[in-house]
Amino acid sequence: MGNNRTSIHGQWTSRTVFILAATGSAVGLGNIWKFPYITGENGGGTFVLVYLLCIALIGIPIMMAEIMIGRRGKQSPINTMAALAKEERRNPSWVWLGWMGVAAGFLILSYYSVIAGWAMSYVFRTAGGMFLGVTADGANSIFTELVSDPERLLAWHTIFMVITIMVVARGVKDGIEKAVTLLMPLLFGFLLLIVIYAMSTGYFMDGIRFLFTPGPIDGKGILIAMGHAFFTLSLGMGAIMVYGSYLSDQHSIAQAAILIALADTVVALLAGMAIFPIVFANGLEPGAGPGLIFQTLPIAFGHMDGGTLIGVMFFVLLVFAAWTSAISLIEPAVAYMVENKGYSRIYASISIGFFTWFVGLGTVFSFNIWKDKTLTIPFLFEKLTFFDTLDYLTANIMLPLGGLFIAIFAAWVMREQSTREELATFPIIYKLWRVLVRYITPLAVMVVFLKAVGAI
Fold first, then answer.
1. Distance, CA of 44 to CA of 434 (rounded, Å)
2. Is the pTM of this model over 0.85?
Protein backbone atom coordinates (compact mmCIF):
# COMPACT_ATOMS: atom_id res chain seq x y z
CA MET A 1 0.00 0.00 0.00
CA GLY A 2 1.01 3.59 -0.52
CA ASN A 3 0.78 4.49 3.20
CA ASN A 4 1.22 2.84 6.60
CA ARG A 5 -1.64 4.46 8.51
CA THR A 6 -3.49 2.50 11.17
CA SER A 7 -6.86 3.28 12.74
CA ILE A 8 -6.74 4.20 16.42
CA HIS A 9 -10.21 2.70 16.74
CA GLY A 10 -9.11 -0.82 15.77
CA GLN A 11 -10.34 -2.86 12.83
CA TRP A 12 -12.90 -5.53 11.95
CA THR A 13 -11.82 -9.05 12.88
CA SER A 14 -12.79 -10.37 9.43
CA ARG A 15 -14.21 -9.39 6.05
CA THR A 16 -17.46 -11.15 7.00
CA VAL A 17 -17.90 -8.84 10.00
CA PHE A 18 -17.25 -5.80 7.81
CA ILE A 19 -19.86 -7.00 5.31
CA LEU A 20 -22.36 -7.58 8.13
CA ALA A 21 -21.66 -4.10 9.56
CA ALA A 22 -21.86 -2.31 6.21
CA THR A 23 -24.96 -4.29 5.24
CA GLY A 24 -26.45 -3.34 8.59
CA SER A 25 -25.74 0.28 7.77
CA ALA A 26 -27.32 -0.06 4.33
CA VAL A 27 -30.29 -2.21 5.41
CA GLY A 28 -32.68 0.06 7.22
CA LEU A 29 -36.17 1.47 7.10
CA GLY A 30 -35.52 2.32 3.43
CA ASN A 31 -35.45 -1.37 2.50
CA ILE A 32 -38.33 -2.63 4.59
CA TRP A 33 -40.53 0.46 4.87
CA LYS A 34 -39.83 2.52 1.75
CA PHE A 35 -38.91 0.04 -1.00
CA PRO A 36 -42.23 -1.88 -0.94
CA TYR A 37 -44.43 1.20 -1.12
CA ILE A 38 -42.44 3.02 -3.84
CA THR A 39 -42.50 -0.23 -5.84
CA GLY A 40 -46.27 -0.27 -5.35
CA GLU A 41 -46.58 3.33 -6.47
CA ASN A 42 -44.43 2.92 -9.58
CA GLY A 43 -45.64 -0.16 -11.40
CA GLY A 44 -43.91 -3.13 -9.81
CA GLY A 45 -41.61 -5.21 -12.02
CA THR A 46 -40.23 -2.54 -14.33
CA PHE A 47 -39.42 -0.35 -11.35
CA VAL A 48 -37.56 -3.27 -9.72
CA LEU A 49 -35.56 -3.86 -12.92
CA VAL A 50 -34.55 -0.20 -13.18
CA TYR A 51 -33.66 -0.23 -9.48
CA LEU A 52 -31.38 -3.27 -9.93
CA LEU A 53 -29.63 -1.67 -12.91
CA CYS A 54 -29.06 1.50 -10.89
CA ILE A 55 -27.60 -0.52 -8.00
CA ALA A 56 -25.09 -2.04 -10.45
CA LEU A 57 -24.20 1.15 -12.35
CA ILE A 58 -24.42 3.75 -9.58
CA GLY A 59 -24.51 2.15 -6.15
CA ILE A 60 -21.65 -0.35 -6.37
CA PRO A 61 -19.11 2.00 -8.05
CA ILE A 62 -19.70 4.74 -5.46
CA MET A 63 -19.62 2.21 -2.62
CA MET A 64 -16.25 0.93 -3.86
CA ALA A 65 -14.99 4.52 -4.01
CA GLU A 66 -16.23 5.35 -0.51
CA ILE A 67 -14.79 2.19 1.07
CA MET A 68 -11.51 2.82 -0.76
CA ILE A 69 -11.24 6.40 0.49
CA GLY A 70 -12.09 5.32 4.04
CA ARG A 71 -9.55 2.48 4.11
CA ARG A 72 -6.76 4.61 2.68
CA GLY A 73 -7.37 7.37 5.25
CA LYS A 74 -8.11 5.06 8.24
CA GLN A 75 -9.67 7.93 10.20
CA SER A 76 -13.01 9.67 10.57
CA PRO A 77 -14.37 11.03 7.25
CA ILE A 78 -13.26 14.56 8.14
CA ASN A 79 -9.67 13.62 8.94
CA THR A 80 -9.55 11.11 6.09
CA MET A 81 -10.44 13.76 3.51
CA ALA A 82 -7.90 16.18 5.00
CA ALA A 83 -5.15 13.52 4.97
CA LEU A 84 -5.85 12.28 1.45
CA ALA A 85 -6.09 15.78 -0.02
CA LYS A 86 -2.65 16.47 1.45
CA GLU A 87 -1.28 13.11 0.26
CA GLU A 88 -2.50 13.75 -3.28
CA ARG A 89 -1.30 17.38 -3.10
CA ARG A 90 -4.76 18.73 -3.75
CA ASN A 91 -6.81 21.63 -2.38
CA PRO A 92 -7.37 21.19 1.40
CA SER A 93 -10.97 22.32 0.89
CA TRP A 94 -11.81 18.67 0.15
CA VAL A 95 -12.08 18.30 3.93
CA TRP A 96 -15.56 19.81 3.59
CA LEU A 97 -16.71 16.63 1.88
CA GLY A 98 -15.96 14.83 5.14
CA TRP A 99 -17.80 17.48 7.14
CA MET A 100 -20.85 17.23 4.86
CA GLY A 101 -21.00 13.45 5.28
CA VAL A 102 -20.76 13.65 9.06
CA ALA A 103 -23.40 16.41 9.16
CA ALA A 104 -25.74 14.43 6.90
CA GLY A 105 -25.46 11.34 9.10
CA PHE A 106 -26.07 13.44 12.23
CA LEU A 107 -29.18 15.11 10.77
CA ILE A 108 -30.57 11.88 9.34
CA LEU A 109 -30.21 10.10 12.68
CA SER A 110 -32.02 12.93 14.45
CA TYR A 111 -35.25 12.12 12.61
CA TYR A 112 -34.51 8.47 11.87
CA SER A 113 -34.57 7.85 15.61
CA VAL A 114 -38.10 9.22 15.85
CA ILE A 115 -39.38 6.97 13.04
CA ALA A 116 -37.60 4.00 14.64
CA GLY A 117 -39.46 4.90 17.82
CA TRP A 118 -42.74 4.39 15.96
CA ALA A 119 -41.62 0.84 15.10
CA MET A 120 -40.67 0.17 18.74
CA SER A 121 -44.06 1.41 19.84
CA TYR A 122 -45.81 -0.84 17.32
CA VAL A 123 -44.00 -3.93 18.65
CA PHE A 124 -45.78 -3.49 21.97
CA ARG A 125 -49.07 -2.33 20.46
CA THR A 126 -49.19 -5.40 18.26
CA ALA A 127 -48.17 -7.75 21.10
CA GLY A 128 -50.92 -6.26 23.26
CA GLY A 129 -53.57 -7.16 20.68
CA MET A 130 -54.40 -3.55 19.83
CA PHE A 131 -54.88 -4.42 16.13
CA LEU A 132 -57.11 -7.48 16.56
CA GLY A 133 -60.11 -6.95 14.29
CA VAL A 134 -59.10 -3.33 13.64
CA THR A 135 -60.75 -1.40 10.81
CA ALA A 136 -59.03 0.99 8.41
CA ASP A 137 -60.34 3.95 10.40
CA GLY A 138 -59.19 2.29 13.60
CA ALA A 139 -55.65 1.68 12.34
CA ASN A 140 -55.44 5.26 11.11
CA SER A 141 -56.74 6.51 14.46
CA ILE A 142 -54.12 4.48 16.38
CA PHE A 143 -51.30 5.90 14.25
CA THR A 144 -52.65 9.46 14.48
CA GLU A 145 -52.95 9.15 18.25
CA LEU A 146 -49.31 8.05 18.48
CA VAL A 147 -47.78 10.86 16.39
CA SER A 148 -50.07 13.46 17.96
CA ASP A 149 -48.70 12.74 21.45
CA PRO A 150 -45.35 14.55 21.85
CA GLU A 151 -44.61 12.95 25.23
CA ARG A 152 -45.02 9.42 23.87
CA LEU A 153 -42.93 10.15 20.78
CA LEU A 154 -40.27 11.75 22.98
CA ALA A 155 -40.12 8.66 25.19
CA TRP A 156 -39.61 6.27 22.26
CA HIS A 157 -37.12 8.65 20.59
CA THR A 158 -35.14 8.76 23.84
CA ILE A 159 -35.15 4.98 24.31
CA PHE A 160 -33.92 4.40 20.76
CA MET A 161 -31.10 6.95 21.09
CA VAL A 162 -30.00 5.42 24.41
CA ILE A 163 -29.68 1.89 22.99
CA THR A 164 -27.78 3.30 19.99
CA ILE A 165 -25.35 5.21 22.23
CA MET A 166 -24.80 2.11 24.40
CA VAL A 167 -23.53 0.12 21.39
CA VAL A 168 -21.30 2.84 19.90
CA ALA A 169 -19.78 3.74 23.27
CA ARG A 170 -18.32 0.23 23.58
CA GLY A 171 -16.13 0.68 20.51
CA VAL A 172 -15.61 -1.09 17.21
CA LYS A 173 -14.96 -4.66 18.41
CA ASP A 174 -16.83 -4.78 21.72
CA GLY A 175 -19.77 -2.64 20.61
CA ILE A 176 -20.49 -2.29 16.90
CA GLU A 177 -19.02 -5.64 15.83
CA LYS A 178 -20.82 -7.66 18.51
CA ALA A 179 -24.10 -5.86 17.83
CA VAL A 180 -24.12 -6.43 14.07
CA THR A 181 -23.01 -10.07 14.32
CA LEU A 182 -26.05 -10.66 16.53
CA LEU A 183 -28.62 -8.35 14.94
CA MET A 184 -28.01 -9.05 11.25
CA PRO A 185 -28.59 -12.83 11.40
CA LEU A 186 -31.69 -12.17 13.51
CA LEU A 187 -32.89 -9.61 10.96
CA PHE A 188 -32.51 -12.07 8.09
CA GLY A 189 -34.14 -14.79 10.19
CA PHE A 190 -37.21 -12.72 11.03
CA LEU A 191 -37.55 -11.63 7.41
CA LEU A 192 -37.38 -15.22 6.13
CA LEU A 193 -40.02 -16.31 8.68
CA ILE A 194 -42.40 -13.61 7.42
CA VAL A 195 -41.71 -14.66 3.79
CA ILE A 196 -42.51 -18.27 4.76
CA TYR A 197 -45.76 -17.06 6.28
CA ALA A 198 -46.51 -15.07 3.11
CA MET A 199 -46.18 -18.31 1.14
CA SER A 200 -49.08 -19.74 3.13
CA THR A 201 -51.51 -16.91 2.33
CA GLY A 202 -52.44 -18.24 -1.10
CA TYR A 203 -51.39 -14.94 -2.65
CA PHE A 204 -47.63 -15.47 -2.72
CA MET A 205 -47.49 -15.77 -6.52
CA ASP A 206 -49.57 -12.58 -6.83
CA GLY A 207 -46.85 -10.81 -4.87
CA ILE A 208 -44.11 -12.37 -7.01
CA ARG A 209 -45.89 -11.35 -10.22
CA PHE A 210 -46.36 -7.82 -8.91
CA LEU A 211 -42.66 -7.55 -8.03
CA PHE A 212 -41.23 -9.07 -11.18
CA THR A 213 -43.76 -8.64 -14.01
CA PRO A 214 -42.84 -5.60 -16.16
CA GLY A 215 -45.36 -2.79 -16.11
CA PRO A 216 -45.54 0.84 -17.21
CA ILE A 217 -43.07 3.29 -15.70
CA ASP A 218 -42.60 6.99 -16.41
CA GLY A 219 -39.61 9.29 -16.11
CA LYS A 220 -40.47 10.12 -12.51
CA GLY A 221 -40.48 6.44 -11.60
CA ILE A 222 -37.03 5.97 -13.18
CA LEU A 223 -35.65 8.89 -11.18
CA ILE A 224 -37.18 7.50 -7.98
CA ALA A 225 -35.56 4.11 -8.67
CA MET A 226 -32.22 5.81 -9.37
CA GLY A 227 -32.42 7.88 -6.21
CA HIS A 228 -33.47 4.98 -4.00
CA ALA A 229 -30.69 2.74 -5.36
CA PHE A 230 -28.22 5.41 -4.30
CA PHE A 231 -29.67 6.19 -0.88
CA THR A 232 -30.45 2.62 0.19
CA LEU A 233 -26.73 1.76 0.30
CA SER A 234 -26.00 4.48 2.92
CA LEU A 235 -23.72 6.34 0.51
CA GLY A 236 -22.57 9.92 0.97
CA MET A 237 -23.22 10.14 4.71
CA GLY A 238 -19.81 9.10 6.06
CA ALA A 239 -21.02 5.74 7.41
CA ILE A 240 -19.52 3.51 4.72
CA MET A 241 -16.35 5.63 4.69
CA VAL A 242 -15.76 5.25 8.43
CA TYR A 243 -16.59 1.54 8.32
CA GLY A 244 -14.12 1.21 5.43
CA SER A 245 -11.44 2.78 7.64
CA TYR A 246 -11.69 -0.26 9.94
CA LEU A 247 -11.22 -2.73 7.04
CA SER A 248 -7.96 -4.68 6.79
CA ASP A 249 -5.72 -3.98 3.79
CA GLN A 250 -5.84 -7.68 2.97
CA HIS A 251 -9.51 -7.75 1.96
CA SER A 252 -10.90 -7.05 -1.54
CA ILE A 253 -12.93 -3.85 -1.70
CA ALA A 254 -14.65 -4.86 -4.96
CA GLN A 255 -15.84 -8.19 -3.57
CA ALA A 256 -17.01 -6.60 -0.34
CA ALA A 257 -18.96 -3.85 -2.16
CA ILE A 258 -20.68 -6.37 -4.44
CA LEU A 259 -21.64 -8.61 -1.50
CA ILE A 260 -22.97 -5.65 0.51
CA ALA A 261 -25.05 -4.39 -2.43
CA LEU A 262 -26.30 -7.92 -3.07
CA ALA A 263 -27.31 -8.45 0.56
CA ASP A 264 -29.01 -5.05 0.71
CA THR A 265 -30.95 -5.78 -2.50
CA VAL A 266 -31.95 -9.26 -1.31
CA VAL A 267 -33.41 -7.74 1.87
CA ALA A 268 -35.40 -5.20 -0.16
CA LEU A 269 -36.78 -7.90 -2.46
CA LEU A 270 -37.54 -10.25 0.44
CA ALA A 271 -39.40 -7.39 2.13
CA GLY A 272 -41.53 -7.02 -0.99
CA MET A 273 -42.08 -10.79 -1.14
CA ALA A 274 -43.16 -10.72 2.52
CA ILE A 275 -45.41 -7.68 2.35
CA PHE A 276 -47.26 -7.84 -0.98
CA PRO A 277 -48.82 -11.31 -0.51
CA ILE A 278 -50.18 -10.10 2.85
CA VAL A 279 -51.44 -6.91 1.18
CA PHE A 280 -53.19 -8.83 -1.65
CA ALA A 281 -54.58 -11.49 0.69
CA ASN A 282 -56.37 -8.79 2.67
CA GLY A 283 -57.58 -6.73 -0.28
CA LEU A 284 -55.33 -3.80 0.56
CA GLU A 285 -53.78 -1.30 -1.86
CA PRO A 286 -50.09 -2.01 -2.76
CA GLY A 287 -49.56 1.65 -3.67
CA ALA A 288 -50.73 2.90 -0.29
CA GLY A 289 -47.67 5.12 0.09
CA PRO A 290 -45.74 5.77 3.31
CA GLY A 291 -48.70 4.57 5.38
CA LEU A 292 -48.36 1.03 3.99
CA ILE A 293 -46.54 -0.25 7.07
CA PHE A 294 -47.94 1.80 9.94
CA GLN A 295 -51.51 2.34 8.77
CA THR A 296 -52.26 -0.49 6.32
CA LEU A 297 -50.39 -3.64 7.38
CA PRO A 298 -51.75 -3.53 10.97
CA ILE A 299 -55.20 -4.10 9.43
CA ALA A 300 -53.89 -7.29 7.82
CA PHE A 301 -52.15 -8.40 11.02
CA GLY A 302 -55.36 -7.83 12.94
CA HIS A 303 -57.44 -10.13 10.71
CA MET A 304 -55.08 -13.00 9.81
CA ASP A 305 -54.48 -16.23 11.68
CA GLY A 306 -51.38 -15.80 13.79
CA GLY A 307 -51.41 -12.13 12.91
CA THR A 308 -50.25 -10.97 16.33
CA LEU A 309 -47.09 -13.10 16.18
CA ILE A 310 -46.37 -12.15 12.56
CA GLY A 311 -46.99 -8.49 13.34
CA VAL A 312 -44.65 -8.53 16.33
CA MET A 313 -41.92 -10.20 14.27
CA PHE A 314 -42.38 -7.65 11.51
CA PHE A 315 -42.02 -4.61 13.75
CA VAL A 316 -39.09 -6.18 15.64
CA LEU A 317 -37.50 -6.60 12.20
CA LEU A 318 -38.04 -2.90 11.55
CA VAL A 319 -36.43 -1.99 14.88
CA PHE A 320 -33.38 -4.17 14.19
CA ALA A 321 -32.97 -2.67 10.71
CA ALA A 322 -33.20 0.86 12.10
CA TRP A 323 -30.81 0.08 14.96
CA THR A 324 -28.00 -1.26 12.76
CA SER A 325 -28.31 1.82 10.53
CA ALA A 326 -28.40 4.24 13.46
CA ILE A 327 -25.13 2.82 14.83
CA SER A 328 -23.39 3.64 11.56
CA LEU A 329 -24.91 7.12 11.35
CA ILE A 330 -23.50 8.28 14.70
CA GLU A 331 -20.09 6.56 14.37
CA PRO A 332 -18.44 9.14 12.01
CA ALA A 333 -19.04 12.01 14.43
CA VAL A 334 -17.96 9.94 17.44
CA ALA A 335 -14.76 8.87 15.65
CA TYR A 336 -13.95 12.53 14.90
CA MET A 337 -14.46 13.57 18.54
CA VAL A 338 -12.15 10.80 19.74
CA GLU A 339 -9.46 11.64 17.17
CA ASN A 340 -9.48 15.42 17.44
CA LYS A 341 -10.59 16.19 20.98
CA GLY A 342 -9.01 13.28 22.82
CA TYR A 343 -12.33 12.30 24.38
CA SER A 344 -13.10 8.75 25.43
CA ARG A 345 -15.59 6.86 23.22
CA ILE A 346 -18.09 6.88 26.08
CA TYR A 347 -17.97 10.66 26.48
CA ALA A 348 -17.98 11.25 22.70
CA SER A 349 -20.92 8.88 22.18
CA ILE A 350 -22.98 10.47 24.94
CA SER A 351 -22.18 14.00 23.74
CA ILE A 352 -23.00 13.37 20.07
CA GLY A 353 -25.99 11.26 21.08
CA PHE A 354 -27.38 14.05 23.24
CA PHE A 355 -27.09 16.66 20.49
CA THR A 356 -28.67 14.24 18.01
CA TRP A 357 -31.50 13.60 20.47
CA PHE A 358 -31.94 17.35 20.98
CA VAL A 359 -32.21 18.09 17.24
CA GLY A 360 -34.65 15.17 17.02
CA LEU A 361 -37.06 17.12 19.22
CA GLY A 362 -37.85 19.20 16.14
CA THR A 363 -39.05 16.05 14.35
CA VAL A 364 -41.01 14.91 17.40
CA PHE A 365 -42.86 18.23 17.48
CA SER A 366 -43.32 18.36 13.68
CA PHE A 367 -46.16 15.86 13.99
CA ASN A 368 -48.03 17.66 16.76
CA ILE A 369 -47.36 21.02 18.42
CA TRP A 370 -45.22 22.35 15.52
CA LYS A 371 -47.18 20.78 12.66
CA ASP A 372 -48.37 24.20 11.51
CA LYS A 373 -44.90 25.76 11.68
CA THR A 374 -43.23 25.53 8.27
CA LEU A 375 -40.11 26.63 6.40
CA THR A 376 -39.76 27.55 2.73
CA ILE A 377 -37.04 25.63 0.87
CA PRO A 378 -35.24 27.45 -1.99
CA PHE A 379 -36.00 25.98 -5.43
CA LEU A 380 -38.87 23.91 -4.02
CA PHE A 381 -41.31 26.81 -3.50
CA GLU A 382 -43.37 25.03 -0.90
CA LYS A 383 -43.55 25.16 2.87
CA LEU A 384 -42.27 22.13 4.80
CA THR A 385 -42.32 21.13 8.45
CA PHE A 386 -39.08 20.79 10.38
CA PHE A 387 -39.06 17.01 9.73
CA ASP A 388 -39.85 17.36 6.02
CA THR A 389 -37.14 20.02 5.71
CA LEU A 390 -34.46 17.77 7.23
CA ASP A 391 -35.61 14.83 5.11
CA TYR A 392 -35.55 16.92 1.93
CA LEU A 393 -32.17 18.56 2.59
CA THR A 394 -30.40 15.32 3.49
CA ALA A 395 -31.97 12.86 1.02
CA ASN A 396 -32.21 15.19 -1.96
CA ILE A 397 -29.27 17.57 -1.57
CA MET A 398 -26.58 16.48 0.90
CA LEU A 399 -26.43 12.77 -0.01
CA PRO A 400 -26.42 13.22 -3.81
CA LEU A 401 -23.75 15.91 -3.52
CA GLY A 402 -21.77 13.69 -1.17
CA GLY A 403 -21.94 10.78 -3.62
CA LEU A 404 -21.08 13.03 -6.55
CA PHE A 405 -17.98 14.47 -4.87
CA ILE A 406 -16.88 11.04 -3.63
CA ALA A 407 -16.94 9.85 -7.26
CA ILE A 408 -15.07 12.95 -8.45
CA PHE A 409 -12.44 12.68 -5.71
CA ALA A 410 -11.86 8.95 -6.29
CA ALA A 411 -11.74 9.12 -10.09
CA TRP A 412 -10.34 12.58 -10.86
CA VAL A 413 -8.45 13.80 -7.78
CA MET A 414 -6.74 10.67 -6.45
CA ARG A 415 -3.84 9.41 -8.53
CA GLU A 416 -4.52 6.29 -10.55
CA GLN A 417 -1.64 4.57 -8.73
CA SER A 418 -3.35 5.22 -5.38
CA THR A 419 -6.71 3.83 -6.48
CA ARG A 420 -5.08 0.78 -8.10
CA GLU A 421 -3.20 0.05 -4.87
CA GLU A 422 -6.34 0.18 -2.75
CA LEU A 423 -8.73 -1.66 -5.07
CA ALA A 424 -6.11 -4.29 -6.04
CA THR A 425 -8.54 -6.08 -8.33
CA PHE A 426 -8.47 -7.60 -11.82
CA PRO A 427 -7.47 -5.05 -14.50
CA ILE A 428 -10.77 -5.38 -16.38
CA ILE A 429 -12.79 -4.78 -13.20
CA TYR A 430 -10.63 -1.78 -12.33
CA LYS A 431 -11.10 -0.29 -15.81
CA LEU A 432 -14.86 -0.83 -15.67
CA TRP A 433 -15.04 0.79 -12.23
CA ARG A 434 -12.98 3.76 -13.39
CA VAL A 435 -15.18 4.37 -16.44
CA LEU A 436 -18.36 4.11 -14.38
CA VAL A 437 -17.19 6.30 -11.50
CA ARG A 438 -15.63 8.89 -13.84
CA TYR A 439 -18.48 9.34 -16.28
CA ILE A 440 -21.68 7.30 -15.84
CA THR A 441 -22.17 7.53 -12.09
CA PRO A 442 -21.56 11.31 -11.68
CA LEU A 443 -23.93 12.03 -14.58
CA ALA A 444 -26.68 9.85 -13.08
CA VAL A 445 -26.27 11.38 -9.61
CA MET A 446 -26.32 14.88 -11.12
CA VAL A 447 -29.63 14.09 -12.85
CA VAL A 448 -31.12 12.96 -9.52
CA PHE A 449 -29.84 16.12 -7.82
CA LEU A 450 -31.12 18.49 -10.51
CA LYS A 451 -34.51 16.78 -10.40
CA ALA A 452 -34.60 17.14 -6.61
CA VAL A 453 -34.00 20.89 -6.71
CA GLY A 454 -36.52 21.36 -9.52
CA ALA A 455 -33.97 22.30 -12.18
CA ILE A 456 -35.25 19.61 -14.59
1. 32
2. yes
